[in-house]
Structure formats: structure tokens, C-alpha cells
Amino acid sequence: MAGEKADAFAGTEEQGLKLCPLTNENATALMALFPYTKPASHKGHRFTMGFGDRLGLASPGHIRALGDHDIYPVLAQQSIRELNLTHRTFADVISAAAFNVFQEGYKKGYGADGDHLKTKDEIKYALSAGCTMVTLDCSEQIDQKAVTYPQAEIDALYTALPADVRGHYEGVYLDKELPIIGRLSGEELRRIVIVFYKGIEHAIECYRYIDEIKTVPVDFELSIDETLTITTPAEHFVVGNELHDAGITPISCAPHFSGAFEKGIEYAGDLNAFAHDFVVHQEIADHFGYKLSLHSGSDKFAVFSTVGRVTKGHVHVKTAGTSWLEAMRVVSEVDPDLYRKAHKFALEHRVEAEKYYHVSTNVNDIPNIDLENDAYLPEYMNLPAARQTVHITYGLLLEQPWFRDEFFAAMAAHEEDYYAALVRHLGKHVRILTAETDV
After folding, report:
1. How far is residue 118 from each of residues 67, 307, 368, measured CA to CA in Å?
2. Residue 8, exposed/middle/buried by CB under 10 A (0-12, 13-18, 19+)?
3. Enzyme catalytic residues
4. What are the CA-CA distances from residue 76 to residues 9, 153, 168, 310, 319 (Å)?
5. What is the percent of the chain with per-residue pLDDT over 70, rounded to a whole number?
6. CA neighbours closer than 13 Å in the CB half-sphere of residue 25
7. Cβ atoms 362, 385 nearer than 8 A
8. Closest CA to 266 of 177, 200, 380, 361
9. Structure pTM?
10. Backbone dihedral region of 87: left (phi > 0), alpha (psi from -120 to 50 degrees) or beta?
11. For residue 351, with 0-12 CB atoms within 10 Å meaning exposed, 13-18 middle and 19 or more buried, which class applies?
12. Residues 144-203: pLDDT tens digits?
């Protein structure tokens, strides 16, 4: 880059151009000079998609997968867990997205999501790095075990609550014909309060904290999906109504929908039950003025048609690990020996990785890789048990020098193959999700 603007970058001159390393400092300079490379709020955009990029390489493929669809991408999306497993920072994630946006000449805007943040310190960290979205995970404040308590124990816990807390909930919800969900019994209300009231207080407190410290518009998403049980419409309504009464309208909310949304594999559950419940959750979201958010949205093709139809394209869908899996598919095609070593390592370390993720597939369903020829290797990325095993061990693999060095060399040599794989795979997500909304 020549001229005055180039002086903002640390680099070397070559043939009238300034060659600059892809550092965070240079990304900051790039974003200052070319504002379209800087993340921004997605408020006002109906259809948004989160694309977690654990490698810092996938955004060109994500952008291309969108095609001409009117979808606002959140290209820089990472959780603290993902940052820890990949030894990256929020600044690293945003810088990678900025460079990739510049590479593609993409000027329609993108967001940066501090995903599944749990504390004020984590929120401050994300926002100070430039995140434009906070997904607040209230799972540590939600009493997940209370859903299994006998009613007598619930009643005792409820009685022990401060009188003003009990008075508030009873005054708002008892003996009332509530929109969408109708009447709540006393037993039902007491259980909802015991399970959720601390999480609601935490959400309100964190939202107000964000309002105090933010320097740019920030999109606030509430996650109540990291729970052991399905979110009932009554629970969703109470949570939404409490935020509404506190003057808070999140940009989106992620309930725990019916069925299983495990990492890297297809939806498992009763599709009719999902559709029935999803319609009610959408009515609640419409009532309070926010979007539903579908977490672990990667590869859930069976529900995408329902999601697109019911939401009419007013929805947020998150994907992440599936982009890593597509990278591994490319490795299986271009460097079979490296894939074989990585595959065996993943099998050996799956139990260690399971402390971070809930998975239900069985490694005994994975064909012995020593009995398969190289041409078969890409098929492992089509087998649920193999996909989950490679999915959850990404952090452990990326820590291994023998893997990391060869892996990134393969990605650099075959970047267009990787982009093409993402266009095929993520493009399928987009096509099904938008089939009802684009006509």
C-alpha cells in the first residue's frame, strides 16, 4: 500500500507497495483507514448468522457462502472457552476477520460476538477488544437442578426468598390471563422463580453494565440454552417479561429448544414437537420485540426449513465447529497422512475433550482408519461419531506442533479448496434457511 495511508502500517516497501504482517496493530490501522473492515452492530438487520472461525481463515468462505442473500454475518464469533482452547484473544479474532473482509472487498458490514460470556470481567474484555455483540450465558445463575426437585422442596426454597421478590412475581403473574401462555398455577410460578430469578437478575445487571462501559452500539443476546432441560414457553415468557419490565429488549434470545442440538451433527428429536414449540417461542419473541437465536445451529438441516418459515427470516443462527470440520475434510483430501495421525489422536483424546462438550455418539461406530484407503478418508467427515470426535478435540490438536505446523501449511496451500468447501457446506445452511423467506 503506497502513499500517506501506508504510513499507518508497520511493514516493508516492495515495488511501490508496503507489505505488512497480519498483526493486531496493523489490523487496528486497517480498520481506521477502511471503516468497512471494522465490526459493527447488526441492529436493524432481520436475518443474521454467526460464523465462528477458530482458525482465523474461514471468513472468505463464509462471505462467499452468503451469496446474494440479505444476511448480516457475525464473522468474529468466539467464546472464552474457544479462545482458551486455541490460545487466541478477542483481538486476534477480530483482526483475522478484518483482514479477511479486506481481502474479499466485502463492504456490507459484519459483527463481532463475545459468545457465551458469563461475567462482567469477560464482558469488559470482549468490548475493550472491539466486540459489537455480547451473548450473555446465564447458566451459572440458573438453578438447573431445581427442575427435578419435589414440589415440597421448591415451596420451601420459595418461602425462604425475600418477601419483595415473592411479592413481585406473585403480583405480576398470579391470577392473570397472560399473553400467549395463559394462566400460571402457583406451583408452576414458584418453580420458574426458583430456577430463573437469579439468572434474570444477572442479565439485568450485566445489560446495565454494558450500557455503562460501551463506546459503540452493542447487540445484547440472552442465552438460556445451556441448561439441562428444555425451556418451556412459560419460562421463556417470564424471562422475557422481566427484561421488558426492566426496560430491556435484547436483540435476540436463545432458549433451549426441544430435541438435541449436539455439536457437529444433525438435529435429533421429534421434528413435529420442535415445530410446535418453536412456533410458541416465536410468538413470545415477537411479543417482546426480539429475535430467536438458534445455538449449535451447525448442520441442523432437519429444522432449518421450520426455522426459516416460522421466523420469516427474522432470526439469528450460530455456527462454529462445522467450519473447522470442513478444514479437516480438506486435510483428508490433500494430506492423507496428516489426517490419519490427527484422526487417531482425536480418538485417543476424546474423553479428555468431553469435559468441554456434551456428545452422545459412540466411537465404536467409527470404522478403523487403518483398514480404509486414502480415497475413503473424506467420508469420515460424513459420519456423526467421527465428526463429533474431530470436532471436540480441535483445541488439543491445535496445541500439537506436529499437527499445527503441517495443518496451517496445508490450509495456506489449499485456501481456495477450503473456501469452496465452506461455500458448499455453509451455503447449504443458507439455502434451506432462506428458502421460505426469499420467495
Report:
1. 34, 27, 40
2. middle
3. 115, 221
4. 22, 44, 40, 27, 11
5. 96
6. 7
7. yes
8. 361
9. 0.95
10. left
11. exposed
12. 899 899 999 999 999 999 999 999 999 999 999 999 999 999 999 999 999 999 999 999
Cell of 365: 461406530
Please, are residues 138 and 223 in contact by the beta-carbon 8 Å criterion?
Answer: yes
* Domains (range + CATH), the chain: 46-143+190-320+430-434 (3.20.20.70), 322-423 (no CATH)
What's the CA gap between 72 and 75, in Å, rounded?
9
